[in-house]
Amino acid sequence: MLLTLLAASVVINEIAWMGTDISFNDEWIELYNITDDAVNLDGWMLKAEDGIPEIALSGTISGKGFYLLEKSDDESVPGISADLIYKGALGNNGENLKLFDNFGNLVDEIDCTDGWVAGDNETKLTMEKTDIGWQTSRESGGTPKALNWQPNQQLQKKVENRTLPSYPEGIIFSRILPSPKGPDAENEWIEIYNTNDFEVDLSEWQIRDTAGRITAYTLNTKIKELSSLILPRPETKIILNNSGDGLELINPNGEVIDSMEFEKAPQGQIYIKSSSGWQWENEKEKIKKLQSLSTKKPLQEKAEENKKMMGQIIDLSQEKNLKIPVVLIALIISLISAGAVISVKNLLS
Predict the structure, then answer these.
(1) Among 25, 131, 252, 321, which is most exposed with the fewest C-beta within 10 angstroms?
(2) What is the residue-wise DSSP string for 150-161?
């Protein structure tokens, strides 16, 4: 499976699986940072599905920068220094290479288990990534630590003219909790809402943050009509930076359907989207509002009961020809009502 650029901050960009004109052992792999921000690669892993090679990455890759991995020594690419030396040869018949971040998330993958999709073992043309897929480099040795060759115009035109599937709008960010009172890693969450009157399949949709270390989460679920879906951080792995961040909701065509951003997040407050825009609301205040709404109904019901009771007392007095003063009736009702209010307060305290 090939992940789209939208799903990653760092991608596998070029592979010299065939070695070089000097030696077939001079293999190298290039990574590319598609974002404007530097990415710390400490704890990241690049490994083949069969376990060879398995490379622990380290260091930093600059924004829009390259990271060169050379096999065995720093002579695989003469004149260009390696960012990392690794061991383990790539198979000439193909590999399934996977790039994982320091949280174990799959960031990028190129599955060539059935054979390399580009590159040439005889001419030593490398396999390089473009915006529309993989291609064989134009020159022997490829373009290490440099931009790859662009695809030919005919292929580009074919891609531009293709008909893309349509996806519904109306899926929005509705609430987020970036700075909970408990541990951020466990208690942060994002909520999306379906404003449509029909269910929407969110398979292959993505949510990604826009500041700091970019993380993309691929959805694989459905959201019912006029319903919300809460996505906790342990599931999405998206870190909402307390100093400020943003989110984008992207459909499988790569179109941004909704976006939002926030500045410094107050601790314990939910950021809520309303008709007037986004605003912060304290978690406790939210709970108190819900509790007050839940107590209104029994109090209203009690008022109706009191009204009914007064009518029954008046009817009884008329039936028995009793002359009960209205003031006395009111006093009886007041005593009963006071008892009901005290009972409700005791329940809420």
Answers:
(1) 321
(2) PPPHHHHHHHHT
- Report pLDDT for 1: 38
Q: What is the CA radius of gyration of the chain?
A: 32
| 120 secondary structure, DSSP code | B
Task: Specify whether the CB–CB gap between 182 and 199 falls below 8 A.
Answer: no
230 with 189: CB under 8 angstroms?
yes
Q: Where are the alpha helices (DSSP H) in the chain?
A: 153-160, 184-187, 233-236, 283-319, 326-348
Q: What's the CA gap between 148 and 301, in Å, rounded?
A: 73
Give the strands of the sheet with 171-177, arranged side by side.
228-232, 189-194, 171-177, 269-274, 277-282
Residue 204 has a pLDDT of: 82
What are the CA-CA distances from residue 265 to residues 193, 243, 244 (Å)?
A: 21, 6, 7
Confirm whether pTM is higher than 0.85.
no
Is residue 5 very low, low, confident or very high in pLDDT (cuts 50, 70, 90)? very low
The Cα 188–Cα 168 span in angstroms is 27
Q: What does the pLDDT look like over 326-338, one tens digit per residue?
A: 556 566 666 655 5
Token output for 212: 């700091």
What are the φ and ψ backbone dihedral angles of 202, each rounded to 5 degrees? -100, 15
Identity of the residue numbered 1: M
The residue length of the chain stands at 349
Q: Are 283 and 290 in contact (CB under 8 A)?
A: no
pLDDT per residue as tens digits for the range 78-120:
888 899 999 999 999 999 999 999 999 999 999 998 889 889 9
- For the packed helices 283-319 and 326-348, what is the interaxial angle rounded to 10 degrees? 150
